[in-house]
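Hi R.,

Here's the chain you asked about this morning:
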Amino acid sequence: MELFDSHAHLDDEKFNEDREEIIQSISKEIKKIISAGYSLEGSKEAVKLSQKYNFIYASCGISPNDIPQTEEKLWIMIDEIRNLVKQNKKIIAIGEIGLDYYWNKDNKELQKKAFISQIELANELDLPIMIHTREAIMDTIEILKQNPVSNKGVFHCCPLNRELIKEALKLGFYISFAGPVTFKNSKNADEIIKMVPNDRMLIETDSPYLSPEPFRGKRNDSRNVKYIAEKIAKVKEIPIEEVAQLTYNNTCRIYKIKE
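And the predicted structure, written out as tokens:
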């Protein structure tokens, strides 16, 4: 069974004590991983991991929770991301980028500028984007409508919101499911999973965060992506092997990853 964890944070400090051992264990069960950058330093670390391990790819970007306090510093960071991408072929997307009004309500305009600027960067570099959106759905969709993304991209750990799914699919984006679809209190998870066509869905762990049931509350890692596949298989009434293959193929397609 080929499993592709399309979004993990292997550079996260929660892996500092045993990163090498965890990666070795993961490699026995998971065929490919994208280590997603969310800050300048995190992006650099993700690239280092992608250079060290054949089965790891990287994305680079500044998330809404990691943008600096001034525009001047933001442009410097984005320019560094540009240079990083130009020098590394295993960077397959700009992200994660987007809007987050849950953690940060005071800098909405700067978040929007950072999002739009990195969409422009993705278009310049001919890459798709990884989108983070939290309590900012309408603004996220509006920005995507006004700033078309040439290579589209993925709503990572996609909020289980009907309108978001409808609009995202209409705009040509892919939907990535993570641990929350397995949570007992995710009342509309089944409905949302059914809304997403088989050729537009991805699976991810967002590790070390958001461990799926039955490991909720514990440190997550890429091996747990199988529980997301299992949940989708149950809802769509297809074999888990088929979910694994579909999502593997979809991830390779959107991020232009060749075998």
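Strands lie at 4-8, 32-36, 56-60, 91-100, 129-134, 153-155, 174-177, 201-203.

Let me know if you need anything else.
M.
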